[in-house]
UniProtKB/TrEMBL annotation:
Domain of life: Eukaryota
Protein name: Uncharacterized protein
Species annotation: Anguilla anguilla
Phylogenetic placement of the source organism: Eukaryota, Metazoa, Chordata, Craniata, Vertebrata
Length: 25
């Protein structure tokens, strides 16, 4: 269960970082 939450959290985090990189460029 905890692994699943961590996986989703990392996925959301990476998605936010991706959007940030896109907006920066």
């Amino acid at each position: 269960m905890l692994h699943y939450i961590t996986f989703i959290w990392q996925m959301l985090l990476s998605k936010a970082t991706y959007k940030k990189c896109i907006s920066w460029s």
